[in-house]
Write a structure and sequence with these properties.
The chain is an alpha+beta fold. Helix content is 34%, strand content 29%.
Length: 265
């Protein structure tokens, strides 16, 4: 991919994040916010902000990159002809959003059949934007702009592990997660996509989750890998299509966690 294309993808990715910010903030922590559920068997919330933010980003792409494909959580797939697809999650962490916690974020990734090449994790309320790809990785927020770099290797017994839910996937997957959790120094929950941002920023060592979709993970993959980390499935394979996710700060901590996950079929 030539430098001009790379520069344009970066430009459009940030334009999408700029567009989604005011749409999501217009409804955040408001008394009038109502959450519908997309599933009958369990609470899978969606709000007017999810739908409006994705539509706003789709409108930008229709104008700026009309030949690219789009895969969004709320409105599905729109084919393109360029070989590139934008993967959008307008509010990752809607449960956190409707609870008023600032752990949700806007996820934006662009990539090809081999996976994401550039991604953004944007937290509008805090005003932090984590971006990575094409040899760049940085965060811009209240403290200015700084490079992103994942943590140096350390023993698993000194590691910090994050996840969104205490309940991880199937009973077998939960047992595998708990086996890792018992070995680390600290496990924290309820982080939504902000956990992946903290990994890229060098604050924690591991994020382990299951049952993710492509729109949940492609932006974190791009940002974390650009910051020096590793993101795979629980067998060590690529995970840009979603599923079981193991995000690690470095090869050593990834190998240690992967060994435990693999030992629990």
């Amino acid at each position: 991919m030539d430098q001009a294309t790379q520069a344009d993808l970066i430009r459009v990715a940030h334009l999408l994040a700029d567009t989604a910010r005011p749409v999501t903030l217009a409804h955040f922590r408001t008394a009038a916010l109502v959450a519908d559920t997309k599933a009958l068997s369990h609470f899978d919330p969606v709000t007017i902000a999810d739908r409006a933010a994705e539509q706003a980003m789709r409108d930008v792409l229709a104008r700026e990159r009309p030949y690219d494909g789009i895969f969004g959580e709320e409105y599905g797939q729109t084919p393109g002809t360029s070989g590139l697809t934008w993967v959008l999650d307008p509010i990752d962490g809607t449960r956190g959003y409707i609870s008023g916690t600032p752990t949700w974020g806007v996820l934006i990734a662009v990539g090809d059949a081999d996976g994401p090449v550039y991604g953004i994790i944007d937290q509008p309320y805090i005003g932090e934007r984590f971006a990575g790809g094409f040899g760049q990785a940085d965060v811009t927020g209240p403290m200015g702009t700084a490079p992103l770099a994942t943590r140096a290797p350390r023993g698993l017994d000194q590691a910090i592990l994050l996840s969104t839910f205490p309940e991880i996937g199937t009973p077998a997957q939960m047992a595998a997660f708990q086996a890792v959790s018992r070995q680390v120094r600290l496990t924290r929950y309820g982080m939504d996509c902000y956990g992946y941002a903290l990994l890229a920023a060098g604050q924690v060592d591991l994020v382990i989750e299951a049952g993710l979709n492509a729109y949940d993970v492609q932006a974190p993959i791009a940002v974390i890998e650009a910051a020096g980390g590793i993101v795979t499935d629980w067998c060590g394979a690529p995970v840009h299509a979603g599923g079981q996710v193991l995000a690690a700060a470095n090869a050593d901590i990834h190998a240690a966690a992967l060994k435990i996950l693999r030992s629990h079929p």
